[in-house]
Amino acid sequence: MDGLGRLFNYVAEASGVHIPLDGARGVTFLCYEADGSQIVTLKESIDGASEQNLVVIDTIWHAPGIGGVWTKVTQTALATYDNADHASDCIAFYVDGAQLSDGFNCLELTTDEASGLGVRAIIHDLYAQRAPELLPSSVV
Predict the structure, then answer these.
(1) Is the pTM of this model over 0.85?
(2) What confidence tens digit (pLDDT) does each residue in 51-73 have?
(3) pLDDT, tens digit (0-9, with 9 covering 90-100), for 64-99
(4) Domain total of the chain
(5) What CATH number is given to the structural domain containing 61?
(6) How many CA atoms lie within 13 A of 103 on its CB side?
(7) 23 lies in a domain?
């Protein structure tokens, strides 16, 4: 597991949880919904409290859910993204920790997908490299 703990940490069910960025440069969110119509909303918080929308989603990548070619989509920076392209079930986008407002340290992404299980988070460019069993909690 050379990557886990050295390059990245992973949150398998990331919808609605607060991901601290005190120990990493940023987060890539991967979102999947079988019909591709999910709407995602990004917020920032202070240790899970004082939530507010984070208006930084401007570059999104689309792909079929089973793999395939990624296609770039751009929009004016918003806190939400509406994936109206039903042909692309998977979306991905990156949020850099430097984009957080002063004093804020956590990210939260929510989806309108019924189960909320379609959101994954890869926390990467870890500041302190550790064995996987020594990684701090990836959620607040």
Answers:
(1) yes
(2) 999 999 999 999 987 778 999 99
(3) 877 789 999 999 999 999 988 667 889 999 999 999
(4) 1
(5) 2.60.120
(6) 4
(7) yes
